[in-house]
Design brief:
Structural class of chain A: mainly alpha
Shape of chain A: globular
Distance between the termini of chain A: 6 Å
Order of helices and strands of chain B: EEHHEHEHEHEEEEHEHEHHHEE
Number of helices of chain A: 4
Distance between the termini of chain B: 36 Å
Structural class of chain B: alpha/beta
Strand content of chain A: under 5%
Shape of chain B: globular
Largest sheet of chain B: 5 strands, mixed
Number of helices of chain B: 10
Strand order of the largest sheet of chain B: 1-7-6-4-5
Oligomer: heterodimer
Radius of gyration of chain B: 19 Å
Number of strands of chain B: 13
Chain lengths: 76, 338
């Protein structure tokens, strides 16, 4: 199973109320106005919406939308 | 037989500690604290004031709200006891002029008030007592590491209390289904290491062997956040199911005020609109066992919480421990807090 980028963008857009057009692969958490707690909130949403679990260690490596995409598909 | 809330009151010590002050003594900023927690200020006890004094003030307010009735039992839920021994509740009962009524403490950290509701409900349902004064009181600022930029801004001091009496199912104020839980495998996420038998035994009663920091709160913030959202979500969903309520039936979610983003996370998981998440954390910080009755007091006194509103109550704390219940808010007089 793999998850496409659009699905991840939708999860981020819904959880953090961000316009989906801003959520491009190279966008960093900082650029999207997200902080360290947002990483945890995103992990909870990925679990709830897509059924994908991300470990704490993996979470700590995430800094861009592209990182999330790679991490999610590694976890699938 | 049901336990019915007939009185409510709270008390906050007058000294306000702002985020600006925290930023002047710690490596942080007011914005950093507020965006990550929702807290703008918190209260702090004056020198010489302890948990007992907070509990007496809140207890007096709750008894007044209930018409200055007599009670048969006083329970103080606290994580910050005046002393390791004895319980503070007997002293609180005496200072409230309640004479020789039954009185004791419980400690379930930030879940203490909901555990107290369950305890009071059990006492009343079993016929052992007919009325209970339940107080959540904590002076946690006295346990914070003054050099810890992460934990020190989180907490504030205060106390809140309710009076419960025996009554019937369906009465406004009746405590509905209750769900409680714990997970000791995560006990180290949020802990004060010193003061108990474990460290005394480990150090051969040698207090010199203890680190000064062991007398302060230690917290794994990331782990605590995740557990708080998941455990509280499960617990409140359980009582909603038992009460046969859906999210649409809830007027207010009265959750333990540890971090507004935890509460918003629970609401997201539940599918509960954020506008139903009640909060006063911006002015109180995390007041542990006091937070739920303090929030109820603010909400009722301001008129936002009205008689007939359906209330979902949820708590989570160190232990780990958690608990939830539901009730329909009764028509009782509640005084605003300064």
């Amino acid at each position: 199973m793999s998850v496409n980028l659009d699905s991840i963008v939708q999860v981020i857009a819904t959880r953090f109320k961000i316009d989906a057009s801003r959520i491009v692969p190279e966008a960093s958490f900082d650029e999207l106005g997200l902080d360290s707690l947002s990483q945890i909130e995103l992990a909870l949403s990925l679990k709830k919406d897509l059924g994908i679990s991300i470990s704490d260690d993996e979470l700590a490596q995430i800094s861009t939308v592209s990182d999330i995409f790679k991490m999610v598909n590694k976890a699938c | 037989m049901k336990a019915i809330i007939t009185g409510l009151g709270g008390w906050l010590p007058p000294e306000v500690i702002t985020n600006e002050f925290m930023s002047s003594v710690l490596d942080t900023t007011p914005e950093w604290i507020e965006t990550r927690t929702g807290i703008r200020e918190r209260r702090k006890v004056a020198d010489g004031v302890s948990t007992r004094d907070l509990a007496v003030k809140a207890g007096r307010q709750a008894l007044k709200s209930a018409g200055d009735c007599k009670v048969d039992l006083v329970i103080v839920a606290s994580t910050c006891p005046d002393r390791l021994c004895p319980s503070v509740a007997p002293e609180v009962a005496s200072l409230l002029g309640l004479g020789g009524v039954a009185a004791y403490d419980i400690n379930s950290a930030c879940s203490g008030f909901v555990y107290g509701l369950a305890t009071a409900t059990g006492f009343i349902a079993s016929g052992v007592v007919e009325s209970v004064l339940l107080i959540g009181a904590d002076a946690m600022t006295l346990f914070m590491n003054p050099a810890d930029r992460v934990t020190r801004p989180l907490v504030g001091d205060g106390a809140g209390a309710v009076v419960l009496r025996k009554g019937n199912e369906g009465e406004p104020g009746a405590i509905g289904p209750i769900h409680l839980g714990s997970d000791g495998s995560h006990a180290d996420l949020l802990v004060i290491p010193s003061g108990g038998t474990r460290q005394r035994s480990a150090t051969g009663l040698g207090h010199d062997a203890e680190a000064k920091e062991d007398w302060y709160v230690h917290m794994d913030g990331r782990g605590t956040f995740v557990q708080a959202v998941l455990r509280m979500t499960h617990s409140v969903q359980t009582v909603l199911d038992r009460a046969n309520w859906g999210c649409a039936d809830v007027d207010w979610f009265i959750g333990h005020q540890a971090n507004i983003r935890i509460l918003n996370g629970v609401a997201t998981e539940l599918g509960l609109p954020q506008c139903k998440v009640a909060s006063n954390i911006h002015r109180t910080g995390n007041t542990l066992a006091a937070s739920i009755p303090l929030l109820l007091t603010d909400m009722a006194a301001s008129g936002k919480l009205k008689a007939g509103h359906r209330v979902l109550v949820g708590a989570f704390g160190a232990g780990l421990s958690w608990g939830s219940t539901v009730l329909v808010w009764p028509d009782i007089p509640v005084e605003a807090m300064a």
